[in-house]
Every structure is written in C-alpha cells, then in structure tokens.
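Form 12-C: Joint structure prediction
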Amino acid sequence: MRRLRGSAFAAGVAMLAAWTLLPIYLVAIGGFGGPDAVYRWPKSFWPENLSLDTFRRFVAIGGIWQATEQSVKVALITVVLSLALGVPAGYALARLRFRGATTYRLVILLTRAFPVGILALPLAVSFARFGLYDTALGVALVHTALALPFAVLVTASLFVGIPRELEEAAWVFGCTGPGAFRRIILPLALPGIAATAVFSFVLSWNEVFAAAVLTLRHRTLTAFLLTVLSESPLHIQLAGGFMLIVPSVLFIFLVRRYLFAMWGIASR
Amino acid sequence: MAELLIEGVAKSFGPVVALAEATLAIGDGEFVALLGPSGCGKTTLLRIVAGLEEANCGQVLIGGRDVSALPPRARGLAMVFQNYAVFPHMTVGENVAFGLAMARAPAARIAKQVARAASLMQIETLLGRYPAQLSGGQRQRVAVARALAVEPAVLLMDEPLSNLDALLRLEMRAELKAVLREAGTTTLYVTHDQTEAMGLADRVAVMHEGRIVQIAAPSDVYRRPASVFVGGFVGNPPMNFLRVAAVSGEVRLGALRLSAPMEEGGLLLGIRPEQLAVVETGGFLFRVAVAEPLGTHLLLTGETGGQRMRAVVPPDATVVAGAELLLAFDPAAIRWMDAASGRAIGAA
Amino acid sequence: MRRDRLLAYALIAPSILFLAVIFLIPLGQTIALAFTRHGTFGLANFARMAGDLNFRNAVANTLGLVIVVVPLQLALALGMSMMLRHLKRGRELILWIWSIPLGVSDLAAGLVWLGILTEKGYLNTILYHLGVIHGPVSWLTYETPLALFIGILVAEIWRATAIIFVVLVAGTQLIPAEFEEAASVFGATAWQRFRRVTVPLLRPSIQTALILRTVLAFEAFAVVLAIGGQNFPVLLSQAYLWQDTNQDYGVAAAYAVLIMLITLAATLFYLVALRPRAGEVA
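Section 2 - Result
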C-alpha cells in the first residue's frame, strides 16, 4: 500500500514534469523539422530530418535577425537602467531608516499589481514628440518600469541578508561609506545582483505589448513575431517560438536560486 | 594605546531613553567590562564610542582628543563584533590585514603586523583560508587578530564570546586575557555574562536601565554591590536580600543579633549564599524546599521567616527537601541596603 | 540619523523620478486621452468602445478566461507545491523544470501550443491514432468557440501556473515543519493538515500569487492572438487593435482604463477577501 502510494506520487511528479517539458520538445522538433515536418500528417513524435536549415531560413527572413539584435539591445538597456535605479533604492530600503520608507515600499509593490504594459499607449504619443518612438531606448524605458519593482525589492532583500556588522566592521577598520559599499557589500551581493540583471533581461526579452506598440520599423523579436503572425508560414512561427524560449529556459536555470527572492516577497 | 574618556554621553531613541548621561574614565592599557542585562544600554554606549551611533549629548575622548564628531574610521580604534563580522569574501590573511590596508600602511609593515597578530591568536596556518572553512572559534580568533593588527588606541569588544559554546568560551576567555595583557591595549568590553566580566576585567562597570550603577574592581562589585540590582545580577546564585527591621539599632534574625546601620526602621540585609553556614546551635531557621547537588557544592533553595533564600553548602552535606536547618554568617559579610531606594547604606 | 535620511532620499529619488515620468504621467495621460474625443471631454470613447462589435465578446472572453483559469491554476500550483514539499530526491531538478514556464513569454507559449493544437498538429495526431478522428480537424476557428476557449485555457495553464507555484513554494518554505508535525501528532490526516494548517498559514502567499496572476491574466494577449487570431478577442488585444491598426488612441485608452479598473477591483477584492483576521499576525 505504502509502495503503491509512493509510486503514484512519483508518477504524478513525472507527469507534471512531462506536461511542462513536452510542449517545448514538440516546438523544438516542429521548428527544426522545417515545412515538411510541420505539414506532415499524421505527425511523428520523433525528430526526423532535423536540420539547422529551417533555422537558418528563419533567421534569414527579412528583419528577423535585426529584430533579435533589437531585442538584445532593449534588454541590455533595461538591465542597466533597472539596476542603476533599483540597486541604490534597494540599499536605502534595506539599510537606512527614513520617513516614508513604508510608503515607498508600498508604492513599489503596487506598481507590480498594475498592468504596466498598458502605459505604452499614451507613451507612444509622447515618445514620438521626444524622438523616442521606435527606438530601443524608448521600449527599454517602459521595460524598466516593469523590471524596477523587482530590482528594488530583490536587491533590498539581498542587502538585508548581508549582516550590518560586516559594514560596520568596514567603517571601524577605516572605510568610508561608499568604500564599505564597494569593498564589502557589493562583492557579497554580486551573485544576487547578477540574477536580478538576468531576470530584468528575461522580462524585457519576453515583453510583447509595449514593444509592439512603441516600435514600427525597429521591432523587437516579440513585436516582430506578433506582427507577422498572420502572414508567415507555421514552421517559421514555431521556429520563432523556439528561439524566444531558449534563452528564457537557460535564464531560469541561471537564476533558479533567486526565484524565491523574486517572487517570494508576499505583499505584507 | 591611550586612555578613553566618556563624558556625560546620553542617547534616546524617540521617547525611549537608551542611555542616561554615562561618564566613564578608562586608563591607558586598562580593561573595563560593561556588564548588564540586555537592554541596559551597554551596547549603545559601546557603539557611541565606536562612532556607529550618534549620541544626543556628551563627549568621547581618546588619548585626550575629542572624537565625538569623527566617523568611525578616524577614531583610531578597533572592534570585535558579536557575530565576528569576518568578511566572508576575503581570506583570513586579507581580513587581518584589512585595517592596515585601508590606512595605506606600507606592505612591509602590514606583513609584520599580520604575522604578529596571527601568531598571538595562533592562526598562522589559517591565513590562506576563507571564513566559510573555519569553525566558530577560529572565526573568533580571526576577528580578534584583525583588531589587534591595527594596534588600536582603544579596542572595543561587543559580546565577543557569546556565540561560542561553553567549553570554548572558557578557553577563549583565558586566552583573551593573556593576549590582551601582553598587547597592553586599552579595552572596553561589553557582556551580559558576569563571569566573563569578573574574569577578564580590571574594573567592571555595571549598567542598569541606561545608567552605570557601579564602577569597581570585580571583587569589590561582588563583595560590596552598590545596589540590590548589582547584588542580584552579579554572582550566581545571586545575593540574598531579607527584609528586616531595626529596633534600637539592632536587627534580630533568629538567635542572631546584628548591629544595624540605623536606629529604627525597615532595611534590607544582603548576604551571599556561600557566606551562609549550617550551625548546630544559634543562628536562624531555614526550611529547605529544593536541594540541588551541583558537584562542587549543594545549592539549597528555601525560606526563612516567609522570605525566599538560597544557601550554598559543601557537597557532602546530606540535606533533603523539607529539612530544617540552622544557618549563621559572619556579620562582616553583610551588605545593608536601603529598603526604599535599593541602594547600599554607607557605600562609598 | 539626519545624514542617513538625506542619503536615503538621495538614493530613492532617481527611482521615484523615473516612476513619476514613465508611470504617473502616462497614467494621467491615459485617463485624459480616454475621456477626450476630438478635443471635447466626455464618454465618447467609451461609447465607441462599447458600441464595437467585438466589445461584448472581448469582455466575456477576458473575464471568462480569468474566472476559469485562475482557480484551476491555484489548485494545480497548491498541489505542486505540496508535492515538492514531500519530494525527497531530485527536488532541485523538479523545482527547475516546474518553474521553466515562468521564463516563457505569452507569445512563445501561444506559438508552442499553436503547433500542438493546429489542424495537422500533435493533438490531432494522437486523436487520430486513438481513432477519435479520421483526418485533420481544425479546432481553432470561430466555428468551434468552445474548443478554441479550451485550447487557450490549456496554453494559459501551461504558461502561467509556474508563477503561482513559485510564490507558494516560497511561502511554504517559511512555514516550519513543526506545525504540520504538531497537527499530525494530534491526529490530523494529511488532508486535514493541508486544509487546516498549511492553507491558512499560506494565505499571505496565496494572496500575493492571486494578485500577480490576475494582473498578468488581464495583460495576456499574445497567447490569444497566436492561437486564436482575431477569432477570440480579449480586452488587451482590442486595445492593441485600436491603437495599431485603427490608429484610434482614444478608444485604445478607453480600453486601457477599463483594464486598469478591472485589475484594481480584482486586487482590492483579493486584499479584502484574504485579509488577515483581526489579531492575527500577517
């Protein structure tokens, strides 16, 4: 009885894992299989005449490579901006006592409970006026608004995790405030900050709505795929989907230790 | 190496007074322990001296120089933290060298000082390791070595032994005493553990509710506590206090007649449990409620005349719960306390 | 202390400034835009929005999707986090696999499931081998609304259960095992332990997860566009259509305001419905 329950449990775990992985596997063989695989009937569940050819053709479609480059550019700017704005604020929340700290934390939390992407609608108009429309920076600004709450809250939890005594010891043994931050706090927080950077990157890489609204000719990969959805053949769409997923899966692997710091902060 | 002068330093957090006008003079090379229960303000005082906390008023002078307005790094002191605060991303050697490196000392001097501090704390073989590879006791040694390496004018220690287990604490205590004596560093040491304070310090400053209530040599604090609080906090088991009444300058306790420090009125008779001795005749009646054999002695808890009392007797005495004994003591061992204020009567 | 305060304000000022410019101003603009049509203030945009053929469908589809998908996901995620809690070997690996969809965008998820659910897709292949169908069948057209709805539902469950799962796992890690052990010592069955001890203690995490998830559910539109195209309008895809295809910013803004209001209402609902009881430490 006990063994039966144990194997039922294991089967459940395995099935849920398969449920997660199988679709990714299928899009991979679909994307790499080329038109033959996509339009074959009935389908084979094994990779057949797998080739990089489709992929090469996919990349060669007008604009797709540029779109990927644009996506990377936007994501990198987002990473830089969200860290530059978020790390100092996180430090302040974690270490300094100041009036309004609770309010600030609440405001940051609330932005997370808000469909931020929608703000791209009016920004499209303002950005056009300031020459930011259809630029990487423009999209990255909205993506930073998305990533900033995470950057602030995650770095705050990182800094809270570093004992205050370490910083005080640095002061006592001759460091200035910024010196102690650079020599002690930053090196210790670096892995977590890197995870935050990766996370901001994924957030930006995946964002569709704002990217689609704020670009016209310089599409990001998601925006590009969205606009060619109805026009391009299925195998190219699948290859695009696979291309979108790969970095995300890798990134989740890289930041898996920090997932809980990202999402685990309950709204208390 | 210098003397440390704390003058009228006070600190409150909002309406809460953490520290009420503390004044303390520590001589060059002297070791003073700040002793008190948690929340008594001892750590606040230490942190004010370190510059980690800002005082509302008062001054801190190190070697005659007013350092009150200076940041921690400019005060010429070193500190050992409760959780050691050994930097986890630096090797032991880098940790010990940290203070000197920050002061941009020449490499030769750093090497010499690190070697000296490491040999004092016996961590020469650990210099290349990272703190994560060390035991708690070893980290403690690194923290002390890091503080000694800078040859500070004043060394501050905040409960440095509280995270060690009992046996290690005993060992480190003796070692710290030897090392600090050799280094001759002026030391301010915060602890809530009275054996630590008594064992290490040249003088003990007992703190209670934000005030320094007694500053004296360990044996004086023990024998001649300045208040009921000190008598109860220092010593394990604590001092007994019996409510008694003086009649015509005399206090009667069973068959004992003791000359009181006042003619008439109520007062407290303070007597250490180990000053009590079992006698055949005379003395006063003590009813034993619990007898705890502790190896070196037998601890008796009970009551006399309705008042709670503890007595320490030799371990070979055969006493069981419910027994009634006659106890007596040397009148010279009495510490009389004012019943209203709780302060010692006739204290210097 | 004063120095601390000044430093703190200096450190948070850039982020506040940024959020004011990229968040508050557009927020105001959206509202202003929504209530202005041809220079006059009023509800004209909303009237136009409500008069649109697809409006009713979009509202029904969006709400229907949220109402069906969120409880299903919560139940699934609770089950998964409980399974993870009792998993002895391979915990790290399973945790990673189960969180993978967290990194998958809704567009990519839509494309993945398009490949499975399409006419000559993998689902139909299985059904064919099982003898249920005899040739390719299309499920994702406006003629098969229920199948389309279920297809999108499945894609959403696949994609976005992970976020609830991760929040809940983070929450369960904060619950000491002693509580459950105490309950079992006092004779509680596994189900009773779950129902009476774990779930109540998890309530703050459940609240966070539901708020996050619901906001994201209203934001999802690419998954719908990829699978259903314009056959399955939702609020955000309508907003996108009005902005991008019709170039009518006023109506798009009206949609945005509507989405914000619904999201806000949902958040408030969760905050009230799952608030800690008086005297309970949240």
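Section 3 - Comments
The domain at 4-230 of chain B is CATH 3.40.50.300 (Rossmann fold). The two ends of chain B are 30 Å apart (CA to CA).
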